[in-house]
Amino acid sequence: MEIEIQIVRENIRKACERSGRKPEEVLLIGVSKTKPYEAIQEAYSFGIRDFGENKVQEIRDKFALLQEDSLLLKDAPSFHMIGSLQKNKVKYLPGRVKMIHSIDSLPLALEVEKEYAKKEELASVLLEVNVAKEESKSGFFLEEVEQALEECKDLPHVKLCGFMTVAPFTENPEENRVHFRALKNLLTNMQKKFPALPLKELSMGMSGDYEVAVEEGATMVRVGSFIFGARDYGNAHKS
Ligand SMILES: *Cc1c(COP(=O)(O)O)cnc(C)c1O
Prior knowledge:
This protein is an alpha/beta fold. The protein has a single domain (2-228), classed as Alanine racemase (TIM Barrel). It contains nine helices and eight strands. It has helices at 2-18, 37-45, 56-67, 70-73, 106-118, 145-152, 177-193, 210-215, 225-228, and strands at 27-31, 50-53, 78-81, 97-103, 123-128, 158-164, 201-203, 220-223. Strands 7-6-5-4-3-2-1-8 form an eight-stranded parallel beta sheet. It starts with a helix and ends in an 11-residue tail after the last helix. The site of pyridoxal-5'-phosphate (PLP) has 14 residues, from strand 8 and helix 9. Residues 31, 33, 54, 82-83, 166, 206-208, 222-226 line the site of pyridoxal-5'-phosphate.
C-alpha cells in the first residue's frame, strides 16, 4: 500500500504541475469502503488522514474503533460520506463525518438540516452532480444545480461547500475530461451567482481518472481500489 500511495501523490503532483496548480490544493481521500479498520490504520501510517466510506453503518463501526485507538487520536483522521444516503440514516452522521459528498436531492438536504439542527452542528456538504445523465447514477443534472442551491442556500445548518461527481466508468480517462471541465465551469458560474456561499470544493476523480480530474480542477480526489486493492463484495450487491 505504501508504494501505491506514493504513486498517487506523485501523479497528483505531476498533474498539478501540468495544469499550473499547487499539490496542496488537492486533498487525497482514501476510499476505505468494504475494507477493515486495519486498512485505515495502515494508510494512516503512510500519511492518509481522510477516508471515504459509502455506508453509514460502516462509518459508525469504524468511527467507534477510532475512538478507542489511542495511536490515531492525536491527529485523528476524518471520514467522508461519499455513498448514496438514505434519509433515515442521516441522524448518525453528525459528529462522525467531516463532509457529506452525496447530497442528491432537496429532501435529503432538508433532512440533513433537521438532524444537524438537533445536534447544533453545521454539516459541510457537496451537491452530487450526475454529469453524464447516467440512469444508474443519482445526483442533480448540471442544469438543476442552480435551482438546488437556491433552495438550500438559507438552511442554517447546511454549509454548501461545492460539488461532487462520479464520472462514467471508462477505460480511457480522457473521455471524462469533458465532464470534469463542465463541473468546474458550473462551480465558477455558481460562485458568481452565489457569492455569499462558500462554494470551492470539487470532489472528482477516482482510481481510473483522478489525474485528468486534477488537471481539470479537482480539489478532492477519491481513490479506493488503487490504494487498498480490489474490493470483495462476495456475491452481494456491488456499490
Ligand atoms: C468506490 C468509490 C470511489 C473509489 O473508487 P475506485 O475506483 O476504487 O478508486 C470513489 N467515489 C465513490 C463515490 C465511490 O463509491
